[in-house]
C-alpha cells in the first residue's frame, strides 16, 4: 500500500493535535510526518504512530520537500501566507482557517455533502467553519429530498472553538477567576459574540454560517440567518436549526433517512429521554441529530437539534476525511 | 397609606424566597405577611421587612383570614387544589405555576404587555412561564408598531428555572458528581429538554412559549415555534428570537423604542462589545435586549437576543408587578 508524506501546520494547537490523533485513529497510511508550528513551539515533540516527531518551525522553506498533503490549522494570516507557498510546492493544502473559504478558486468541502468539489482544487481546499460543517451534514438529506428555502440557525458553541485560551477561561472561570480571552465571563454565562462584529450587526461567525452553507450546497438561493452564541461547554457545538423546505415532507421519512445515513447518529426517542447533548457527542466523529419535529408555524417547517464535536467533525476529522477522499480518488498517485 | 395582608405560598422555594425579597425591595405596603409551605417546611422562619415570620403549613383553612392577595409558587398540583380555595375566601391569587395559565377564566398577565387583563380576574391571575415573560416584554413594541406574523424561539435557560434541585445539579456537576435531578449531566452540557415531552415531539416548555405568547397578546394568528434548552447557567434565561413582522420596519426606530421603553434595558453597542449576557442580567428586574439586527433571509425579518433573570422578571418580579398594578387600580380597596 502506498504511504503518504503528511504535514500538520499548527501541530501544537487544539485542532492541530486532534488532526494528528485523527490521522492515526483513521489509519491514514503515513510514511513521513511533519508537524510544523510557529517558532515558539518549534523543537517540541509530537507523538504519531508510536514515534516521536520534532515540531519544525514553519518557514517559507518548509515545503521544499516531498509532502503529499498538509493539514493547516494555524490561523488565517498563517494560511494566507503559507498555503500558497505549499501549493506552489505541489503540496495539497487542506486549510482549517477562514482565509480561503470564500475564494472562488478554493473548494469548500464537507465529504458527506460535496466530496467531488475537492477534486477541483488548485492546491488549496478549505475546511468549513465548525458550526457550518455539522449543520450541512444534517441538512444534506433534507436538501436532497425536499429542497431548502430558508434556514434559521441558533448555536450553542463550546469554548474549544476558541482553542486553548477558551478552554482555560472556562476552567479558571468556574473557580471564580476573571476571563483572559473572552471579553466577559464564560463560566455560567452565554456570550452572543463569536469572532468580530460587522457594521450590519452580524458577527463574522454568523456570516460564515450563512455564506459557507450556500457555497457548500452551491445554492445561493437558500435564504439563511444565524445567531451564534458561546456557552460554557468544553467540547461539541449544539445547534437549534429551523428549516423551511420547498416540498412537503413526511416526518417519519426524515427519521428513517437519518437512521440509515452514514456520518449521522440519530438520537431521538423522547419516551426514553434520548436526545443528543454535547457531552454525549464529544469525542465522536459523527454528527448527532435529534429533537426532529414539524414546525407547525409554516407549511413545510422542520425543527431539529444538531450536535457534533467541533474539534473533530467540526475541524480535524473533516479535514482528514477530505484527505481520505483524495487518497481514494488517487489524487496523490499522479 | 393602606397596607395589605399578603401570603406567599411556597415561601421556602427559590421563587417563593425571591417573591418575599421583591415585595420588600419594591416597597409593597404590607401589614401582615403569611409565608406558607408544605408540612416539611412549616415552622421555619422567613425574614420580611426586618421581622421574622413563621412559615405556616398550607391547609384548606389557611385562607380563612383577612388576606388581600397570595403569591403562589408551589407547583401545579398545589395551585390546582389551593388557588380555588383561596379565591373562594376572597384572596386574589397570583399563581406562578402552569396550572391555570391556559384556563379561559384566568387572565395571563405581563404588566408591560396586558396589565388591564388582570382586572378581569375571577380570583386567580396566572403568571406566565419564565421564558415567555421576557420574550413578550421584548416583543411588545414590535407587535404594536409592526404586527407579528411569525416567531421562532430558541432558548438558553438557566438551572434556577428547575429550582434548588437544578442549582444543586450544576454546583455538584462541575465537581464531577452525577446529576440527581436532570436525566443527564448539566455541567458543561446543553440539554434540549425542559419539562415533559408530548407525542408531537415538543416539550411542554416549548408549547408553553407558543400558547402563552398567543394568549398574552390575545392574538391566535401569530405563528410560533420554539426549541427550549437548558444550559449550565445559574440565573437568567437567554433567548435567540427570530421575528417576521407584518409591516416593514426601520431598524433605527426599533433601537430608539427599546432605548426609551420602561422595563427594558437596551444593550446593543457592538463597537464597544456591549450585548446582554445572563451574568449581567441576573439580579435585575429588567428585560435586556441586544444583538438587534435585520434578518436578511425574509422581507420583514428581525433577530434579537433577549436576556432576563428568570427568577425575578420571569417569576417573582412579574407576580409582584401584577400585585402592584392591582393596588394601583384600587383592586383591594373595594
Task: Report on this structure.
Two copies of one chain form a homodimer. The first copy, chain A, has helices spanning 14-25, 76-88, 111-114, 130-146, 164-173, 204-217, 251-260, 278-281, 312-328, and strands at 4-9, 30-37, 45-48, 51-54, 56-57, 69-72, 92-95, 124-126, 148-156, 223-227, 237-245, 264-266, 287-295, 301-308. Chain A is an alpha/beta fold and 334 residues long. Chain A has two domains: 4-127 and 315-328, NAD(P)-binding Rossmann-like Domain (Rossmann fold), CATH 3.40.50.720; 131-310, Dihydrodipicolinate Reductase, domain 2, CATH 3.30.360.10. In chain A, the strands form three sheets. The first copy, chain A, has a six-stranded parallel β-sheet, sandwiched between helices. In chain A, strands 10-9-11-14-13-12 form a six-stranded mixed β-sheet. In chain A, strand 7, helix 3 and strand 8 form a beta-alpha-beta unit. In chain A, helix 1 crosses helix 9 and helix 4 packs across helix 9 (312-328). In chain A, 56% of the residues are buried. The model of chain A has no long low-confidence stretch (mean pLDDT 97). Chains A and B meet through strand 9, strand 10, strand 11, helix 8 and strand 13 of A and strand 9, strand 10, strand 11, helix 8 and strand 13 of B.
CATH topology-level fold name of the largest domain in chain A: Dihydrodipicolinate Reductase, domain 2
Whole-number tally of structural domains of chain A: 2
What is the arithmetic mean of pLDDT of chain A?
A: 97
- Radius of gyration of chain A, CA atoms, in whole angstroms: 20 Å
Amino acid at each position: 500500500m502506498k504511504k503518504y508524506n503528511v504535514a500538520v501546520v499548527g501541530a501544537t494547537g487544539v485542532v492541530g493535535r486532534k488532526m494528528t490523533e485523527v490521522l492515526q485513529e483513521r489509519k491514514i497510511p503515513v510514511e513521513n510526518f511533519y508537524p510544523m508550528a510557529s517558532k515558539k513551539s518549534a523543537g517540541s515533540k509530537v507523538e504519531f504512530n508510536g514515534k516521536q516527531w520534532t515540531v519544525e518551525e514553519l518557514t517559507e522553506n518548509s515545503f521544499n520537500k516531498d509532502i503529499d498533503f498538509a493539514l493547516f490549522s494555524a490561523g488565517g494570516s498563517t494560511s494566507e501566507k503559507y498555503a500558497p507557498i505549499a501549493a506552489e510546492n505541489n503540496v495539497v493544502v487542506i486549510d482549517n482557517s477562514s482565509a480561503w473559504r470564500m475564494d472562488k478558486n478554493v473548494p469548500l468541502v464537507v465529504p458527506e455533502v460535496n466530496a467531488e468539489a475537492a477534486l477541483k482544487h488548485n492546491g488549496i481546499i478549505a475546511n468549513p467553519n465548525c458550526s457550518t460543517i455539522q449543520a450541512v451534514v444534517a441538512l444534506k438529506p433534507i436538501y436532497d429530498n425536499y429542497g431548502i428555502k430558508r434556514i434559521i440557525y441558533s448555536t450553542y458553541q463550546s469554548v474549544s472553538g476558541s482553542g486553548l485560551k477558551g478552554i482555560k477561561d472556562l476552567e479558571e472561570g468556574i473557580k471564580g477567576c476573571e476571563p483572559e480571552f473572552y471579553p466577559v465571563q464564560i463560566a455560567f454565562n452565554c456570550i452572543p459574540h463569536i469572532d468580530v462584529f460587522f457594521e450590519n450587526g452580524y458577527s463574522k461567525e454568523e456570516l460564515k454560517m450563512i455564506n459557507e452553507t450556500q457555497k457548500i450546497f452551491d445554492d445561493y438561493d437558500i435564504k439563511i440567518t444565524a445567531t451564534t452564541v458561546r456557552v460554557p461547554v468544553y467540547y461539541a457545538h449544539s445547534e437549534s436549526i429551523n428549516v423551511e423546505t420547498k416540498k412537503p415532507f413526511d416526518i417519519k421519512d426524515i427519521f428513517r433517512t437519518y437512521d440509515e445515513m452514514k456520518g449521522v447518529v440519530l438520537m431521538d426517542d423522547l419516551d426514553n429521554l434520548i436526545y443528543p447533548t454535547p457531552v454525549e457527542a464529544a469525542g465522536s466523529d459523527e454528527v448527532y441529530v435529534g429533537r426532529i419535529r414539524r414546525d407547525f408555524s409554516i407549511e413545510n417547517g422542520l425543527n431539529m437539534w444538531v450536535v457534533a464535536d467541533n474539534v473533530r467533525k467540526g475541524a480535524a476529522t473533516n479535514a482528514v476525511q477530505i484527505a481520505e477522499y483524495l487518497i481514494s480518488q488517487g489524487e496523490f498517485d499522479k
